[in-house]
Amino acid sequence: MNNPMILVVEDDAPVRNLIVTTLKTHEYRYLTAKNGAEAILMAASHNPDVLFLDLGLPDMDGIDVIRQVRTWSNLPIIVISARSDDGDKIEALDAGADDYLTKPFSVEELGTGPSTPTGGFGSTIPPAARIWTARS
């Protein structure tokens, strides 16, 4: 079974590199986008299994990306954002996000570390995303 494809949407290169390095280390397939327009295009054309999404993008708010993707897809959306106010979290979840991680986050929170508990997909997908992919 192929590992799920994860679309990482993050404009901050060091954070994007941390996520990608973690995914590479655990042999996940991934794509990256640096802005909202690119994220929407890649989500539509590549049909990823999971979307890791920053909210503070240079061309549009990540909430708008969630809303647009939700018009045609139920793919799991995991927000990874520096926005820590409850209102921001609620807005993202209400818009259609499935989970919300606040930066800074640890590799363990991302769920790809060696101590990751096994779920329905074994170790082929991070736990934060595993829950949501199992629903689809």
Gist?
With 136 residues, the protein is α/β, with parallel strands linked by helices. The chain contains six helices and five strands.
Shape: globular
- Helix-and-strand structural type: alpha/beta
Taken together, the total number of domains comes to 1
Give the count of helical stretches: 6
Major sheet size, sense and barrel closure: 5 strands, parallel
The string of secondary-structure elements, in order, is: EHEHEHEHEHH
CATH architecture: 3-Layer(aba) Sandwich
The top level CATH class name: Alpha Beta
Mean pLDDT: 81
Q: Indicate the low-confidence ranges by residue numbers.
A: 112-136
Kindly report the CATH topology. Rossmann fold
Radius of gyration: 14 Å
Percentage beta strand: 15-25%
- Head-to-tail CA distance between termini: 17 Å
